[in-house]
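pls read this protein.

:::
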Amino acid sequence: MRKMCFIFIALAAGCAVALGNSATLESKVAVVRNGEVFKVIFKSQEESTVKVTILDNDRTPIFTEKIFSHGEFVRPYNLSNLPQGDYKICIDDQNGEHVEKVCSTEPGIVRREREVADKAMIAHVLKIQGADNKYLVSIPHQNEGEAEIHIYDQRNQLIYTEKLTLDSDFAKVYALQNLDGATFGFTGRLSSKEKLVSIE
């Protein structure tokens, strides 16, 4: 297998995420895709040593590195020089926790996501552990050039709207004070219905 050429770029995180020390590794890690570049986002309130390993479809390690984090880091991994297929990005911390994220560079995977997007937009909402009323919203890049995020209160009244231009993956933290039971709504230019995600 050809050696992989990685391009590491110092990126400034676009949002601040606060996580409690009791949060699991799964809640600290996100992997966001932009073409054939997979960006690992790690957020924590404590210093930690994190090992990142990339495996091919046969679970053979093709890259590994250890990162000493002062609380957070963003690391892009460029898989464009590798054969198309499925890869796994594995993250291990000093506490022995292990997380695996499946990453596919197959164009067909993107097409399948776009077919789903025609019915309802692909979007995710994650409550940030240890941070009161903060939620991480992530929207993978899809065929929606434009999108809107709506926030509804407990009475389903629209209280916030944000318009987006989605030319890459999107991630942002929203702080919702005194809005227990609120709902996030997501619509896209090509979506046939609004995707609703209720929060507790």
Remarks:
- DSSP finds two helices and 14 strands in the chain.
- Residues 35 and 199 are 30 Å apart (CA to CA).
- The chain has two domains: 25-105, 119-198.
- The longest helix spans residues 107-117.
